UniProtKB/TrEMBL annotation:
Keyword rRNA-binding carried by entry: yes
HAMAP family in UniProt: Ribosomal_uL22_B (MF_01331_B)
Keyword RNA-binding: yes
Species of the source: Candidatus Weimeria bifida
Keywords, alphabetical: Ribonucleoprotein, Ribosomal protein, RNA-binding, rRNA-binding
Family: Belongs to the universal ribosomal protein uL22 family.
Protein's gene: rplV
Subunit structure and binding partners: Part of the 50S ribosomal subunit.
Record's protein name: Large ribosomal subunit protein uL22
Any single Gene Ontology cellular-component annotation: cytosolic large ribosomal subunit
Highest taxon, organism lineage: Bacteria
BP GO annotations: translation
A Pfam family the protein falls into: Ribosomal_L22
Length: 128
């Protein structure tokens, strides 16, 4: 087969695929900055400590990230057969998603733009 053949390209891409358990939430209705406050607090921690941090964090993002973290743990246990005690948060990051543009009426017929930001949040776990 030629080097750039479609099946060969797919095979090479699958060989380089990250096999660590993860969970991803797309189009979360919060800005990247607000999500990163919580993600920075749990990065590198073991999963039980990370769950405790997000449960008692008063921010809105923590409830969303808690659900995502529980999903990643379930993926690790069910799909990869890993033990919960050995897991830790290897990577967690938020990328910017699309922005909904809305208009706020102001005085004298003016219109101010309001940007409702979205983010894509990813949590990747690994074994110790």
């Amino acid at each position: 087969m030629a080097k750039g053949h479609r099946t060969q390209v797919k095979r090479e891409r699958n060989d380089q695929k990250d096999l660590r358990p993860s969970a991803k939430l797309s189009f979360a209705r919060m800005s990247v900055q607000k999500a990163c406050f919580v993600l920075d607090a749990i990065r590198g921690k073991d999963v039980n400590t990370a769950l405790a941090i997000v449960q008692y964090n008063p921010r809105y993002a923590s409830s969303v990230i808690e659900k995502l973290l529980r999903s990643a743990i379930a993926n690790a246990e069910n799909n990869n057969g890993l033990r919960r005690e050995n897991l830790y948060v290897a990577e967690c990051y938020a990328n910017q998603g699309p922005i909904m543009k809305r208009i706020q009426p102001r005085a004298q017929g003016r219109a101010y733009r309001i940007e409702k930001r979205m983010s894509h949040i990813t949590v990747v776990l690994d074994e110790k």
